[in-house]
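Can't paste images in this forum, so I'm doing it all in text. The chain is below; anyone willing to post the predicted structure tokens underneath?
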Amino acid sequence: MTTFAITAALVVGQELQLNDGTRLHVELSSPAPVHCVLRKDAAAISVIALCGSERDAEERMKAEEEIHQALAERSESGGALQ
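Text version of the structure:
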């Protein structure tokens, strides 16, 4: 079963990948607050979106839930995905 949730978080770092493939982790001195849209499938948790406001996160979560529901209904009916 897939579930969606919103949680508040801080962006404390970012990762950069240079053209030569080198990866650098940047720790931010002023963490930015965000609202995360999360999806949980069995034991896996995925970050779907980082939003600047709770309202934006709620709208994004609603859209993700609708997409997930539509895909599940098509899968159950044997309909082709377009």
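The radius of gyration is 17 Å. The chain has one domain: 2-76.
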